[in-house]
Amino acid sequence: MSHKQPKPRKASSNSVKDTLLNQGNYTPIPNKVITSIGITAAKHGFDGGKALAFYVYLMRYVDSQEFVNGKKNPRYGWAYPTVEMICTALKMSHNKVNPTAKFLESVGLLETKTERQQGKTFKLYKPLLPSTGMLDTVGDDLVDVQDEDVQDASDVQDVQDLLSEYVQKGWL
Question: Hey, what CATH topology would domain 30-168 get?
Fold first, then answer.
């Protein structure tokens, strides 16, 4: 069964979406990530909604100041919430944070590092945006869901079911 997707509308420069994004009140997440991450996580035994929520949460807290006091900010592009903050915000147990981060790293959507400051160790997370073709070249680890790849009604239903679940749980 063939499923034809509607052609996307070109947004005008003064669309509501553009206005909201320009106000800084929203975090843009690539559609390709939203549709791919949940399905891929489920195939690897992870809760797809939690993996997506984790990625979105990190994107929300990325340090967006490229320069601080005229100097290059070494934390630019990195998020550094504590494990406790992540667990509280996402209703996630402590023992799920590292495996979820490692899963996102394995599919090329996250980079992590540790940093010591004043005798304390901090974990930093850098959510990565998929570059053009990135999801196509990762291989079998990340399912690439594109409009032209959705071949039958069951594929469409799987994506719709996952997105409905995310909305019901308040993750989208």
Answer: Arc Repressor Mutant, subunit A (1.10.10)
